[in-house]
Amino acid sequence: MAKDKTNMWTKELSLSTKQAHNLERKIIEFTLKRTELRDFKMNEEAKKERFLTLQIQEENDIREILTGSQYKRYVHLSSKLK
């Protein structure tokens, strides 16, 4: 799944090899974190807050990998995919 997402973003954003590698690592990292959080026993409100925090962290990490114009396109396309 991470490879497929990375390939899609590589095509859409014209990522360099290094960017694609770093993005794939982030996709895997945050997918694992979301899965762990989903399985964690806690009240739903706390879980929602943690998911939001994870989303913000992921966006910040991805912002550091991409150029400004790539990030703008990423945000635009991500909103369409949701």
Give the % helix: over 70%
How many domains, in number, for the residues?
A: 1
By DSSP (H or I, 4+ residues per run), the number of helices equals: 4
- Measured on Cα atoms, how large is the radius of gyration? 14 Å
Average pLDDT score: 94
Strand % is under 5%
Which of globular, elongated, flat, extended, rod-shaped describes the shape? elongated
Helix and strand run: HHHH
From the N-terminal CA to the C-terminal CA, the straight-line distance is: 16 Å
The biggest sheet amounts to: none
Ranges where pLDDT stays below 50 over 5 or more residues in a row are none
Q: Give the tally of β-strands.
A: 0
Structural class of the helices, strands and pairings?
mainly alpha
How would you portray this structure in words?
- The structure is a single chain.
- 87% of the residues lie in helices and 0% in strands.
- The protein is mostly helical and 82 residues long.
- The chain has one domain.
- The longest helix is centred in the middle third of the chain and has 23 residues, at 17-39.
- The two termini are 16 Å apart.
Put the structure in a nutshell.
Helix content is about 85%, strand content about 0%. The chain has helices at about 1-15, 15-40, 45-65, 70-80.
